[in-house]
Structure formats: structure tokens, C-alpha cells
């Protein structure tokens, strides 16, 4: 799947300090020899997850988990608008205030996986959204 003997490319990445510290702690705990090794592994996992999601088709039930900054101007309204525009696809939602700045929103979805993924990716692109995770399964587990 991934070619090992490829020429390495040097890139620059800007990250918030707290995110880099957390990443460095994980790298240390997992025994990586460098940040680059950890970043390569994270990118590989991201690609595998994205490609796996691309292979799904048909009817699914799923959970969209969102963590976002509720102080981001207009974000709450946009999330509600997405939910209202997706009636029949998005059902129940669950909202929790995690701390002064962050909320957790859980949306239950049922329908065509392509539409569920489209909505998930629309949410991912919103400014102030920090994390989005889509978990799906088949509607029928015969």
C-alpha cells in the first residue's frame, strides 16, 4: 500500500504549542525515534481511514462526534442549520459542555453513507471545529 523506499520531502507545519506538546508526549510513550516518524505514522493512518471510508456504500447507521469551540462566531447556528437541512438523515443529537470553551455534539445518522460522509466533511471544514469522528455500521447485521 505504501512505498517504503521513496525520496523524503521536507515540509513545514505550524501547530499550536499545546497540540505539539501532546503529540510529543505520545511520541515518547509509543517509542518513536523522532517527530517525523510519528507524523508519517499519523498521516498513514489518516490515509487508510479516509480510503476505508471511501469504500463504503449503501445504507448505514452512524454516529458523528464533534468537538468544537462554542465561542466561534456563527458556528452554533451553522451546525443547527446543517442538522435542519438534513432531516431524515440526522436524527437525535446530544450536546455536552466540556469546559468553558468546548462543546461535544453527537449526531445520530441513518441513510446513504455518501450523504452521511458529505455532512461529516462539511462539519469538518467549519472554523472552530476541533475534532470530528464518523463511526458507521450496517443497518442490518444478518
Describe the structure.
The chain is of the alpha+beta class. The chain has 2 domains: 17-54, Arc Repressor Mutant; 58-138, ACT-like. Chain A, domain 2 (Alpha-Beta Plaits, 2-Layer Sandwich), CATH 3.30.70. It contains 4 helices and 4 strands, in the order H-H-E-H-E-E-H-E. The chain has a 4-stranded antiparallel β-sheet with strand order 2-3-1-4, with helices on one face. The model has no long low-confidence stretch (mean pLDDT 87).
Helix and strand arrangement:
Layout: H1 17-30, H2 35-55, E1 59-69, H3 75-84, E2 90-97, E3 102-112, H4 113-124, E4 129-138
Antiparallel strand pairs: 1-3, 1-4, 2-3
CATH topology name of the largest domain: Alpha-Beta Plaits
Tell the overall outline: globular
Order of helices and strands: HHEHEEHE
How many β-strands, per DSSP? Answer: 4
CATH level-4 homologous superfamily of the largest domain: ACT-like. Chain A, domain 2
Give me the number of helical elements.
Answer: 4
GO biological process, one term: response to nickel cation
GO molecular function: DNA binding; DNA-binding transcription factor activity; nickel cation binding
Binding site for Ni(2+): 84, 95, 97, 103
Function: Transcriptional regulator.
Keywords:
4 strands; globular; Alpha-Beta Plaits; about 140 residues; 2 domains; Arc Repressor Mutant; 4 helices; alpha+beta
Summarize the structure in short.
The protein is an alpha+beta fold.
